[in-house]
Structure formats: structure tokens, C-alpha cells
Design brief:
CATH class: Mainly Beta
Strand content: 15-25%
CATH architecture: Sandwich
Structural class: alpha+beta
Radius of gyration: 19 Å
Largest sheet: 8 strands, mixed
CATH topology: Jelly Rolls
Number of helices: 8
Strand order of the largest sheet: 1-2-10-7-12-5-4-3
Length: about 325
Amino acid sequence: MEFERVQTVASLSFDRETIPEEFIRPEKEQPARTASHHGPVPEIPAVDLGDPDRENVVRLIAEASKEWGIFQVVNHGIPCELISKLQDVGKRFFELSQEEKELIAKPPDSKSIEGYGSKLQNNNQARKSWVDHLFHKIWPPPSINYKFWPTNPPSYREVNEEYAKYLREVADKLLTTLSLGLGLDGNALKEGAGGEEIEFMLKINYYPPCPRPDLTLGVVAHTDLSALTILVPNEVPGLQIFKDEKWVEAKYIPNALIIHIGDQIEILSNGKYKAVLHRTTVAKDKARMSWPVFLESPGEFVVGPLPQLVNKDNPPKYKTKKFKDYMFCKLNQLPQ
């Protein structure tokens, strides 16, 4: 397991006033040097999913997805107690010894991203991100590999299975609303992304306290390769969205879900909805954590602009391809 040990931030030993050179971002990416807003800072739209005026919900989500590529939802139906349990069991896993966490490490030769580790993208750059993570699928049952689910704490599996049950209902509601916002049948985007075979990939991000948060990033600027990402944060700020040539920090709303439009919905909508460019900063004295779930098409499933949104006046803006091929290009930083 030595391969994974050198890949994780939690296993580092270093001077508490500095960080290793490989974590220092180029100047143009350093949080202290990048532009911020002057005057009132715009806030990411927040939408009440419990609003009985369904047309208003559709309008607000569609507007946010076109203008921001991200929004937060409240009154989403997932019990607050369950979100707290999800956060608690994830936090307890990352507080385990390095040796115990490495029992479910991502194998060095694995083609999957599932498991505990740090390395995600395949590139030759020496720069690293200030984050450790755990990936595993939580739905549908045939896609789940329980060897990457922690057995400690003992309640981890029960809590995550309960969360998956509620999350599927939220995902269906969001995909339906986003479809209606395009003037389509409610099932259009879900079917276009894989229907009942859409895979729910959970990632737990753990960003340890960092002595020089001005020089590094938890996750560098990117868009998600998923169709949709549904994220639970903890109370430590850090998620930033690139809007109008500035980085905007996501305001923490207790028990809200943060919804990212991913690459596949941008493709399916032929560019009407925008995948959000975002990054994560880290804190000096606190550990930041987040629990995104990526809604991904099955590998062999073909995704492209929906035929209903394409005509001679609005030709396809994206290639149609298997999701596994899209993912390969994205992770290896190859052109699509």
C-alpha cells in the first residue's frame, strides 16, 4: 500500500509554516492572486423545492442553470438528521489511522476511480491538490462494489444506503424540472443520460488544514463530467464558482444541497444549460469536507445533444459519444 500512502495529503509530514513545492499552484491560480468581486458579491441562486408553484420552481432552476450552471435547493425532502449522519460517518472514516483508510485504497493499476486516495487525473504535471478522497458507487445495486465501502464506522453502510434512497427521489425531481425548463417532456434528460441505469458515484472530499491556503487549492478549476452533481458541504467555506470573470464563493446554507450542472447535461441541452466552472480553496485551521454525488451515464451509454433541441437553425454543438470515451478524454486531458 505504499503507492497510495505517498498519494495522500493526510500522510504528509512537513513544516507547519510551509507546504511541499508540488502543492504550490502557479501564480495565476493562487487564491490570493486571483480576482475577486468589488462591491456587492452576487449569490448563487437558492430555490425552494417545496414551493407549491411548480412553474416558478421550473423557471428559477432553468434560469440558474443557464446563467450560473449551479444553484442550491432547500426543502428537498432529505431529513436533516440523515444529512448529519452522512457527514458524521464520513468524518469518522477520515479520522481513522492511515493504515486503516488504506485498506480500501484505490488499487494502483485500477481503471476505476473507486477507492481511497488522492490522485484522480492522469497527467504529467508535478502539481498536486490539497485533498484526499473516497469514491464509491451508491446506486444502482448492480454497480455497487462494497469492497470500497468503509466497514468502520459500522453504521457507514446503513447511512449511505438510506441516503441513496432519498437522493434518487431528489435526482428525479431535479431532472424532471430541468427537462421542463427546456420545454421538453419531464423524462427527457433522465432518459438521455441513461434512464434507470444512471450511476450514482459518491465522492467524499477531505481537505486537511493547510498552513498556506493562499498558495494551493483543494481542487483546481474544472467542470464535472457528470450529468448532474448533488453536493452536501460542511460548514467550512471553500467552493468557488467562476462567474463574470470573477471567483464567487458559495454561501453556506445549512442542510441545503448544492446542484452542479455537469458536462453531460450541457451536451444533452445542446448548450442551453451550462456546466459550472468551479474550484475549491482550503482553510488554515479547519478541515473542509464535502459529499458530492455524481450522476453518471453507464460507460457504454451514448450521450449527445437531444434530437428535440437540434435543427437546421440550431445544429449540434457537441459530439455524440459513449460516456466511457468522454470520461477517458476528460481524465487524460485529451480533446473531446
